[in-house]
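Re-run with default settings, no changes from the original entry. Doing this only to confirm the output is reproducible before filing.
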Amino acid sequence: MMNAMSKKLRWGVLSTAAIGLKKVIPAMQLGQYTTVTAIASRDLPRAQEAAKEVGIEKAYGSYEELLADPDVDAIYNPLPNQLHVPWTIRAAEAGKHVLCEKPLSMTLAEARTVLPVRDRTGVKIGEAFMIRSYTQWRRVRELLDQGRIGTLRSVVAAFSYFNSDAANIRNQVECGGGALYDIGCYCIHSSRLGFGQFPTRVVGKIERDPDFGTDRLTSALLDFPGGQAIFTCGTQLIPYQRVHFLGTKGRIEIEIPFNAPKDRPTRIFIDETGDIFGGGIVTEEFPTADQYTIQGDAFSKAVLEGGEVPVPLEDAIANMAVIEAVFRSAEMGGWVNVES
C-alpha cells in the first residue's frame, strides 16, 4: 500500500507499449507528484531493456509480479484496447489505483463492469485523456464558462493520420483498432467537454478498410441538448487535427488540440468579430509544457490528497456510450439514441 508520508505516487507500467516508453513514462518521471518505479512485460528481457532505456528501477517478466509489488501504488495501463478492462480490474483488485489509456474498453457493457470493482476496492480509476488537464484546454473551458463566445451551439472537430501497416495494432480489429476507438474518442470527448452535456442521439457513417476490416474513415453528428457537434476522423488521411467551438457571439479554435508539442508553445485563436479574413482574431499562447507530465501529476495529486482524478470512471463510461452509439448508427443507417 502507498506510504502515507510519500510526496510522490509510485507508478508501475503494464507493458512496454510505445506510447509509454516514448511519451508518458519520460514525462511522468519529470513530475512533482509522480515517480515510475517498475515496468512489466510478458518478456523479461524486453522489460529489462525498457527499464534501462527510460531509467526505471524494477523490471518484471509478468504483469502479475508487478501487481504484487507492495512498493507500487498506481498502475499506468497502455495495453491494447481489448486488455484495458481485464487488467484494470486485476490492478484494482490488487489495491492499485489505475490510469488506463483511452478508450477504456471495447464495449459499453464491458466498461460498466469496472464500476463495482472500483467502488468495492476503493481505488481511483481514470481514463488517460491527457488533454483534460492541459493548459490550453483549461483556458478554453474558462472562456466558455465566461460566455466569451456567447452561447456555444456547435463543436467541429477533425483528427487524422496515415497508417497502412497491417502489423500495427491500430489496424487490427481484434485489438480495438480503427479510427473511432483510437482518435474519434478525442473528438467525442472534446464535444462533451465543450457542451458540458451528454448527447442524446447520434448518427454515424463508417468506411472500413477492405483488408483490415477496421474503420479507416468515420464521421458523426452528435445531438446535444444545447447544440450539435460534428467530427471526422481517419487513419488513412493526411495528418491533421483541429477543434472549433462556435458560439452565438464568437468562436474559439485550438490549433493543435490533441498531440500538443512539448518543445514549443501552444495556441488558441479567439474570434469575436466574424471577420472571415481573420482580421479580428486574438491569439493566446501558452508556455511550453508536457501534457503527460501534467496528466500524471493531476492524477497523482488527486490520490495523494484525496481529490477526484481528471477523467473519472463515470466519464470514461459516458464516452464509451457515445462511441458505441456511433458504431451502432453506422450499422443501422440512421439516428441512434445514446444510452444514459
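The longest strand covers residues 236-247. Residues 1-5 have pLDDT under 50 and may be disordered.
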